[in-house]
Structures are given as structure tokens and as C-alpha cells.
Write the C-alpha cells for this entry.
Amino acid sequence: MFSKFCIQVQSEKELEILKVRSDHGGEFENEPFEIFCEKDGIVHEFSSPRTPQQNGVIERKNRSLQEMARTMIHENNLAKRFWAEAVNKACYVQNKIYIRPMLNKTAYELFKGRKPNISYFLQFGCTCYILNNKVYLKKFDAKAQKGIFLSYSERSKAYILYNSETHCVEESMHVKFDDKESGSKTPE
Amino acid sequence: MFEKNNCTIINKDDQSIIFKGKRRNNVYKINFSELTDQKVLCLLSMSDKKWLWHRRLGHANWRLISKLSKLQLVRGLPDIDYHSDALCGACQKGKIVKTSFKSKDIVSTSRPLELLHIDLFGPVSTTSLYGSKYGLVIVDDYSRWS
């Protein structure tokens, strides 16, 4: 998993990863990982055993991701099994809007060199209507199915949605969102 | 403009009437379904817009949103005043933290034995020589004598 990520990031930025810092978790401290690091010339640094304080950057990011995801789930009273999608969405949003302290720029701008566009952002969990273009419909069948907006697709220009009628997660571009529906709600 | 039986809402720029309402008892009512004039595009107020973006950005911190807007770090965020005017229920559910307690910099008691702090610790997994498992600690607030 990590090796795939490394190859992708390195070729995207045409830069090489120099160091990796982690704790002593079994998923980082094992032989295949070490071999991979050696091969690519990556220095693997560890925090001291039982000292997560030295691993502050990642621990703090974990917390903000979890907090944002938790908030988004509870806002719409969604089932907790949507947590993975919520975390993905939180990550997507945070990359575009979180400001790097001291440098005073968003993470996106520092990484990609241009300002992020957030005009298309939608609320997590808002109701949407998905055009049913998968199955052949009879003349007077309903053309759309109700769903819940989860996230944006990373690979294609599409949305990731949960279809409440078929109970599947799907990717689609032919969607109408009811983004304002809860927009007029006053905070509890 | 509010009159005795009617109210009219007028566009400040060109003095055109946006919508009219009639008074029923003490409330001016506006029937939006009667509106045939398509000039009315948005009935959301600034406040709603602010909250909508707060939710769209995954309930991000108000300070952060206002900074993004002021320093123009992103494209597509409407330029309005972002500040919290109410407590967001979902934010509390997701992010509430314990209150912190600052240590006091004054001595609040004036003589020994005025206030005693008492706590019991235990059960200790190893029993003591006399078989006890708990310890009682009493501290005097003024002198911190225990």
C-alpha cells in the first residue's frame, strides 16, 4: 500500500521522498517495509517507544480527520458505517482548506502550486437524486433514485454517492443535489 | 416598508418592489407561492449562506474559514463575513473537549485546617504487610500539610 503511494507521489512531483517518520507499530516495523525503504534510499525514522508525543504531526492530523468525520456523520444522523467515506471526504476538504501555520498558505497551494477551487463543494450527507442510466427503464418508470452524497471521486470527474434504494455506493456524474435543503436549518 | 395593513419590500438600488405582504393580526405574511415575478432568485440570507459553507467545508473552524476568505487562499468561497453567531450542534457532537482547569495563583484560605482535601486511593494490586489495599490522603489547603 505504502509503496504504491510512494511511487505515485514521486512520479507526480518528480521529487524523491527522503525520510519517513513513524512509530513502532507492526505495520511500519517489518521486513518488507525495511527492504522497500532501503531499495528506494528512504531513511526510516522512528519516534521513541511509547512516546506518541514525538509523532505529533501525524497524531494531530489523525485527530482533526476523526473530528471532522464524526461531526459530518452526526450532523445528518447517518449510520456509523459511513465512517470510511466521511474520513475520505474530511481528508479531501482539509487538504484544500487547511492553512499551513507559519507559511500561511493552504496545503493544496503548497503542494500543487495553485489556489484550490472550492466552488463545487457540497455538504456531506446531503440528499441527491441520481439519474438511473444503468438499467433500461420503461417509459413511465421513475428516472431518478434518491441517494446520499458522500464524497468526490479522485480519479474521475464524478461524485461518490450512496444509493438509498439499491443500498450500494456508486460513482455518478448525473446527479442533482438538494444542497440547500438543510441550508435553511438553524443550528441546534 | 411596513404600513397598517400591508408591507412592501423594495430593492434599494432601483426602487422596484420585490414582494408584498399582508398583515394578519400582528404578523406580516408573504405568500411565496403567489410570486410569479422571477426576479426573486435567492431567499437565503447571508447568515444561511455562512452556515451552508461551514457545513460544506466539513464543519471547519470559523477562524479558519474567515482567514481563507480574508487572505483569499481559495477560489470559489463567497466573500462574506464568517463568524459564529450560534453554537453548531453537530460540531459539539463531534469535537467537544473537556474543560481545562487553570491553577490558582492566590491562596484562598487564611489559616490551617480551614479546608481539607480528602481522597482515597486504591485498590492496590499488592496488599501491604498488614493486608490493607487502600490509602487515605488528607491535605490541608493552607499549609499543604498531609
